[in-house]
TrEMBL record:
Protein name, entry field: Glutamine amidotransferase domain-containing protein
Entry keywords, A to Z: Membrane, Transmembrane, Transmembrane helix
SUPFAM superfamilies assigned: Class I glutamine amidotransferase-like
InterPro entries hit by this protein: Class_I_gatase-like (IPR029062)
Domain of life: Bacteria
PANTHER family membership: BLL2462 PROTEIN
Amino acid sequence: MCPICLTGWGNEMTGTLLLDPLIPLLALYAIAVLVVVAVALAIWRRLPGWWLRGLAGFALLAAIANPSIQQEDREPLSDIVLMVVDESASQRIGTRPEQNAQAIANIEAEIERQPNTELREVSLGDGEGDLGTTLMTAVSQALAEEPQARIAGIILVSDGRLHDLERAPALPAPLHLLMTGAPDDWDRRLVVQNAPAFAILGEEVNLTLRIEDQGAAPETASVPLSISIDGEPPLTVQVPVGQDIQLPITLPHGGMNVLQFEIPTAEGELTNRNNASVVQINGVRDRLRVLLVSGEPHPGERTWRNLLKSDSSVDLVHFTILRPPEKQDGVPVNELSLIAFPTRELFLEKINDFDLIIFDRYRRRGILPSAYLDNIRSYVEQGGAVLISSGPEYGSAESIYRSPLGQILPGAPTARVFEEGFVPQITDLGARHPVTEGLDALSPNPDGDGPRWGRWFRLVDVLVPQEAMTVMSGLDERPLLTLNRVGEGRVALMASDHSWLWDRGYEGGGPQLELLRRLAHWMMKEPELEEEALWVEPAGQTMRIIRRTLDLDTGDVVVTHPDGTETTLRLEEVSPGRFETLWNAPEIGLYRLDDREETAVIALGPSAPREFEQTIADSTLLAPLIESTRGGIMPISAGDIDIRSVREGRPAAGRGWIGITPREAFRTAEISITPLLPAWAFLLLASLLMVGAWLREGRR
């Protein structure tokens, strides 16, 4: 069908003349040429009926061309105005929620007054991760769902802060911004510009901080900055505003150290969501310095030495008594191939350089004076760690317990020593303590009757004070491994010297290396080995909240959101001493957890998300895009605006008004095709014209 057409327009109906030739167009053109030639010949011969001949020829041509009238029944479609409302985190501060509601009501009322116009409202919230305000992505998705030919205008209700301008689509209509905020808004934020992920214990690391003021901020020279590590009471210092601050930090312990920085909320500032920052730095020990003091030689002495020397991160100083003072064999001292050990330097002057001191079957022989042992006691009370691996000598009159160290040791000997085989067992308390928790799972017994460990054959009977913790037991459930806290330090007592049997693989051996590793880490206060701890393992915006405790139950955990609201969570016991729950956080930011005994701080994403890097409303980024569509920027604080219809290509904004461009789109409801005249009518008309030509020419 050839739409060589003439079109007539109406409000709802339109007609088009179509030609649908019965023969190929080339043949039709040839016949038309013949008709023209015949008419020209008739004119040249001066035949009086030439015009009738011509009309008859054209009537035949019309019959062959098969003219029809196509009629369309069109239904007018309404224009669409898109309104994208920014409801991201930065739009929930100050009076912006009320401004959003005011703008929405204003636009809805104005669109209601426009004839044949619909409003499509799209809300933009916080997406996954820290993408910021994806305003152009929301516009692109909204445009993709609507016919472009019906879009009469796009209105953004936002603070103008967006983070995906590069994704702006081609806009088919004017773009307008109704901007939240007020001219006198201001905000203050804390920025941590650089922070290492790892740091060596005992060495200073420098963090760079900066306090920034934005907007119409009052003049302030300095503000108080509080610094807290692992939820401890904060230290407050005055810091200048608008300057980089170099802050030296020395980590207090190994493992993850959570440093929280916070400045107070000033009166009038927009939000305090960016007034705090959390930095997590993993404390790494450069070397673990261990002093091993061996007394009476025994098969386990080399095992202790080999275990400690096998770890490349351990610096071992081994003090062993090879020739006790009472040994009299007549050999001159100047002929002995022994080097005098620097006992005074080690036990008085440099004792605080050691992370752990191990006494392996040591007995009092006058080599270490009481003053040295008393200094070790003070070392523990001030934060040091001492491990006693005892043998029969611990129950004798020469026991190390009968020295100044006895004041801190977690077991008093009864002088009884049992020489019988037994399999070490984990106590009920030990099943909840991180030093021994799950040790039995490393050597499961197929019969299910305790762990599949080898036996030990010696146990020193001790009386354990009430404040100490017995985590392993031996013969007849007597204490085998006892732990205690003394002042700032920690002590441990192994009431047997047969742990080396596990290392040698006797009767299957046992987890001596893992037990020693856990003991050392607990005594050096590694956070992952603390028996009372609350921490969070984040995965995206999902928190796994974990509480470890020696108690049989634990209280609810109160989670404080970044905006100050609170959620109370109940934890369920998943293993002895370990309580957990999974919780989906509603947004990224800084969360605080508290169960009235332990506290924790966790930052999902950055503690001050991208949304809060710049909080003052600003249209600078959107201005070029809006100008390209001849749209306008209207502050909501200036009052309501009017919406007017403007022609395409004309300015679409002015003082107090914005414009939309009517599109006059339609939908074709029905199409009908009717022949202009029946074929017989064209033939009859041609015949009459030819007869008329014959009659006129016959009268001549």
